[in-house]
Amino acid sequence: MSAHNPDGELYHSALIPIEKEWIDYNGHLNMAYYNVVFDRGGDEFLAELGFGPKYAAERKLTIYTAEVHICYVQELHLDDVVTVTSQLIDYDGKRLHTYNEIIHKDGWVAATCEVLSLHVDMSGPKVSPFPEDVLPKLEFYKQAHAKLPVPARVGRTIGIKRK
Question: What is the pTM of this model?
């Protein structure tokens, strides 16, 4: 169960232990498994917003990831335990813009992840508008998270800066 106060604070996922199978030949968390950790923590936040497994099963509507930008900040190793924080940056009629961080149990940032997600009607599948009844929760989190500073890594691009 998450521990969070949505009124101006980040959403925090349950604790996630780093698993042995996720460690690569370099002795640290393989890059693919950062996605797994972000997915697990992010799914908790989506459920908090109203888009969990029950929503998908009953309404045949869901959230698909359209774009992800991960920054690997510090290595994780076997026996590390982390949580994922989530912040709703913005939304419109069909899309969510979220920012997440993997936070080590000791408080340091291991990685960041900016995500653009689409609301999808699974019968298509096709992108579709959010139902009216979910908009108040989105607006609540947007307003609450707007009280937080915009993270420095939001909106970054990848490129080689030339002198």
Answer: 0.92
